[in-house]
Each structure stands twice: as C-alpha cells, then as structure tokens.
Amino acid sequence: MKKIIMTGTLAALLTFGGLSVPALAGPVDVVVESAWSRASIGMNRPGAVYMTIRNTGDEPVTLIGLSTPLAMMPEIHETKTNAEGVSSMSAAGEIAIAPGESVALEPGGLHAMLMRLQQPMTEGETFPLTLLFVDGGEVTVEVPILGIAARGPED
Amino acid sequence: MALTEMDFRLTDHEGNEVGPETLIGRPTMAFFGFTYCPDVCPTTLSDISGWLDDLGDEAKQLNVVFITVDPERDTVEAMAEYVSYFHPAIRGWTGPEGQIARIADGFRAAYERVPTEGGDYTMNHTASVFLFGAAGRFVTMIDYHEPREFAVPKIRRALEEETEGAT
Ligand SMILES: [Cu+2]
C-alpha cells in the first residue's frame, strides 16, 4: 500500500536550522545531520539527497538501503571521476560506519539517488527518507527540498 | 583543439543556431552534461554560477555554455527550462547526435550512454569545465568541483588571454 507523504506534519515537530536535523527515534544509534535535496523539474528526472550520517553508538552500523514514499527506487549511489575527468555513477552497496565515525553524502561523492519519483520535488517542502540498517534498525529523517541550484544545506 | 578549427552546428536554448564562430571574440567557459543528471551537473552549474558571481562585472565578458550529451531527452525547451534555474549568463546548447559528437570530439570530451534498471539510462561524461581565450585557443580546464580559490584564477587567465590576443 502506498503511504501518503506527510509534508509539513512531521516537519512541524522538528527544527530545521539547516544545520542539524534530529533523526526520529529508532533502535539505531545514528544521527543524521544537514540533510538536503534539490527541487526537481517534473517527475522524470531522478533526485539526489545529501546528508551526514553519524554513528553515535558503541557498535558499528551498516546502512543497507533506503525507503521513501517519494520515490519507487531510492538507492545510495556514488559518483566517481576518473583520471580523464569522466564522471560516472553507480550503486554504492552497503556502507559501514564505525562507532563515533560519520559518512558524508555530498555533491560529487555519495548521494541518495531517488529514482522513479512519485511526485515532483517542490522547493520549500520536505519529505521523509528512511535509512535501513543491516540489523533491521531504521532511522527516518525529514529532508528539506531546496532550490535546483542549491549548493549545500544552508542555501 | 582551438575553437577556430572546430566545425559543428547546434541550437541554443532560445532556438538560435550556434557554432564555433558564436564563441570566438570573447573568452569561453564550457561544460558538457545533461539535464537528467542528479549530482554532477547541478553541482557544476551551481559552482559555475558561484564563480560568475565572484567575477562580478568581469563575468559579462565571458561566453558560458552548457552543452548536452543527451540530445534525445534534452530538447531546446528542456535546456531552456533547466538553465533558467542557474546564472543568467549560462546558455544551453543541444542539437542532433552527430553534431554533439563533433563538438565533443573538438573539445576532447568523452560521453557514453549507460543503461540503468527499468529501461532508463544515464550518461557518463567529462565533468571538467573547459576554458578558451577570446581568439579561440584552449587555455585550461577546471576539474570537477574544484574549489573556487583555484577555479576563479583559472577563469581570469582565460579572460587575460583576450587582452594578449588583442595586442
Ligand atoms: Cu546517482
């Protein structure tokens, strides 16, 4: 069954300074910071989400996937640029984060790629993105949608 | 290759026919990409917009061109909408596949269509920004996502090339 996007409702419960977006409660000791995405033109083009994922616990955590009502096929991707300057993108697979460490999803490196959008990404709105961990834990974050030309979470 | 040695016919996002001669006479900053690109292309166009803001009035002397490597999806209309979200100096160019291949060849830029799940496709492509002097001579490249403290002086070099060419 399709979930309904809870634009604005969850968002109202959280504070967005643009700097720190507290993750919703989950059994995983993970904090997601500075999540942001760009608005889309229509629904045919994929979207990208960036954030920092911090392991605040004493055990390693492994990110294995994503889910969001916004896209049928969300996937962690990595952009690589080779010695000739050619960029390509591919699925990043599982991402292990050691205790106390963090992983940055940022332009030109890792990103959460949102393929097969279910609705356009509109500047000023937010959407929930759930990070799925290998032990079954989940962390959901509300991702703000910034402008198409945004360069970072503060834009 | 110098712009003066290149041969291609494309259409800009306002429907004007363009070619190498469109660029000669002013320094040029050019970048290959496609509008279905979620990461590299918006990042580069935002970087370019930031460099142009830094350059201020100097930026007005530059041609700034975003050339699609995906003409099948990037029509003139798609390019027009896409570039409208970035710095107003940025022009979007598209055209027939064969002509895109010619300009990429001239620039020594590479691109490749890569199928993805569900019958879609993405494009691998050269993500560097190319700089040419006003006389059409290749000056240098800015690497993908290069910090602006390196990028902006490179653009100034291309701008100065104009003065040299004029003397
Ligand atoms: Cu991707």
Number of domains of chain A: 1
The biggest beta sheet of chain B reads: 7 strands, mixed
Please provide the count of β strands of chain B: 9
CATH superfamily of chain B: Glutaredoxin
Distinct bound molecules: copper (II) ion
Give the radius of gyration of chain B.
15 Å
**End-to-end separation of chain B:** 22 Å
Domain Thioredoxin (chain B): 1-164
Binding site for Cu cation (chain B): 37, 41, 125
Pfam families (chain B): SCO1-SenC (PF02630)
Disulfide bonds (chain B): 37-41
Describe this structure in words.
The complex is a heterodimer of chains A (155) and B (167). With 155 residues, chain A is mainly beta. Chain A has a single domain (26-146), classed as PCu(A)C copper chaperone (Immunoglobulin-like). Chain A has 1 helix and 10 strands. The longest helix of chain A has 5 residues, at 9-13. With 167 residues, chain B is an alpha+beta fold. Chain B has one domain (28-36, 45-160): Glutaredoxin (3-Layer(aba) Sandwich). Chain B contains 5 helices and 9 strands, in the order E-E-H-E-H-E-H-E-H-E-E-E-E-H. Chain B has helices spanning 20-23, 40-55, 76-83, 97-107, 148-166; strands spanning 10-12, 17-18, 28-33, 63-68, 90-94, 111-115, 121-126, 129-132, 138-142. Chain B has a 7-stranded mixed β-sheet with strand order 2-1-5-4-3-8-9, sandwiched between helices. Chain B has a two-stranded antiparallel ribbon with strand order 6-7. In chain B, helix 2 (40-55) crosses helix 5 (148-166). The longest helix of chain B has 19 residues, at 148-166. The two termini of chain B are 22 Å apart. The model of chain B has no long low-confidence stretch (mean pLDDT 93). The structure holds copper (II) ion (CU).
